[in-house]
What we know:
This protein has six helices and no strands. By secondary structure, it is mainly alpha-helical.
Amino acid sequence: MKHVKLFEKFSGIENRARLSDKMLSTLNEQIKNELQSSQIYRAISCWLDDNGWVEASKYYFKSSQEELVHMDKVYSYLFSRNCKAVVPAVDKVEGEFKDIRDILEISLEHEIAVSEEWNVIADLAIKEGDNPTYEFACFFQKEQVEEEEKFRNLLFKMNLDIPNYELDELFGELV
Length: 175
């Protein structure tokens, strides 16, 4: 507590936040979103492992870790802009799924939602004339295009009646 009060005593330019309150709030919410994504993918990894999808389980476990890296990038960005980051709590995630198609559809829907989250951040940055944050958001927007395409293509392959063992092997190639 004393550390916080000591920091608040100083009001020099070196202590000014370089993001608007709205942008700071939005990016702190994105920290929570990235952590939630990690938990979703970890739950999927567990279900897949329990149901014999060895390579798919590895893929989703790796994806879960990548979401934590994304979260850390947002934290680092807030620190670089001299802003206060918040450590979020996340909601409990579903751990039961109908089948692999259900998982792929959930994954694609989730990635589309994440794309929209980053679009909101980019749009807000443009509105505020915040070019550094806009460029930061563009990095994630580009990555989201790849993520959506990956799940869409796996669903297309399922529509062609690819055997489950071949689908699992495709996940292995993504790891």
